[in-house]
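Researcher: Please predict.
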Amino acid sequence: MPRKAIWRPAKAKDYPALGVCVYCGATDALEDEHILPESLSGDALVLPKSSCRPCASMTSAFEARYTKQGIGIFREVIGAPTKRPRKRKDNLGLWLADRTDGKIRPLGRKQDWDVDLVPGLYMALTMPLPTIISGAENTEELDCQLWTWGSYDPKFFSGFQEGVRVHVGSIHPESFLRMLAKIAHCFATAELGINSFAPLLLDIIKGDEPLSNRLIGCWHEEVSPSDALHEIRVDWVDGEGGWLLICSLRLFCATGSPRYLIVVGRDIQQF
């Protein structure tokens, strides 16, 4: 898969204004909320008048930690959207490091490369099924593993001195999972309405619930690449404890990325 072929405009959908903050219920000074971060999908899925300014600042912070620090270079390499297109250049400066006795030591300087030579590394996390679905015992410690997809030109490595490495991104599990929870909660609200389910993800989004595998996980079978930029849907599933609202989400599907199953809420009639 040519990396420039990964980015394509996402299918847009219009939603009516919500008129209340989707996270805290405030009704003043509401802003439009991008269901999928703007840096991942442009203006494809926007829920108008649905986030107060404090909550918008909160979600923007953890989204940026993933979309900039985690996959910022990947986004530049594939030509993903940015609010500052004029700042994008034909070359990228990457931080250098070396490996000594198995340990990576930053060298404190950057080196410029032609953007067409820079490795396109997409990073995500894989996890078991949410324990609320699988019935497995939930633990306080998050069970997750790094998942990567990469595309690079061998010429990139010809300019390295022996032992020198470059930093192309890092992933922060808390920020990544809070972003997944935010996407799922907002999409379910946009599709079904704010009072159509009893929400389960708000404490995760706000950072008030310790991370675990209870509500967020992955489909247990390998998923083939697809032509879609991202895939997202919500469905009601009859579980042992009653009906659960599940969001199925994939990001950058052309890479063969994991399919996340995110438990958004319960049937409101159960309460």
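Model: The chain has six helices and twelve strands.
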